[in-house]
């Protein structure tokens, strides 16, 4: 791979060529180019993690953030607060990485569809669901089926003692 020329960090054509090879080179682009939608989208398409280096304005751009989060869920941590509250973006992310429920807005931590997707692939993330959903049998079952340790985040003793939940936590010995 050719050496990156820092003298050309403000040259759009040069940066586009380089970002097609390594999106993380966006880190070295000029502020003007970190705020250029074409440049940032090129970087994020090559490497979704490049979202980290986008301008704050473009971390609030739905298309760019969706491109990143739908491929590497945890990059939601770089999204603007507004987009961390966007159901489509968070849903796309939790389908790949349930851990990102941690970055979701308070409202989305109380959204059954989002929390269910999150706990299906990361049971322990039940910890960050709303109290209401930590007391929802369907969500709790999905969480403990994925990771029995999620039982410590079940909201109520009553639900912890539920027969179906107990069968998963303490299966009968053969």
**Largest sheet composition:** none
The pLDDT mean sits at 95
- Spans of at least 5 consecutive residues with low confidence: none
Strand content: under 5%
Structure notes:
This protein is elongated. By secondary structure, the protein is mainly alpha-helical. The termini are far apart. The chain contains eleven helices and no strands. The longest helix is centred in the N-terminal third of the chain and has 10 residues, at 37-46. The chain folds into two domains: 1-84; 105-174, no CATH class. The model has no long low-confidence stretch (mean pLDDT 95).
In short:
The protein has 174 residues and is mainly alpha-helical.
Strand-helix topology:
Blueprint: H1 12-19, H2 31-34, H3 37-46, H4 62-69, H5 81-84, H6 87-96, H7 112-121, H8 131-134, H9 137-146, H10 157-160, H11 163-169
Helix pairs in contact: 1-3, 3-4, 4-6, 6-7, 7-9, 9-11
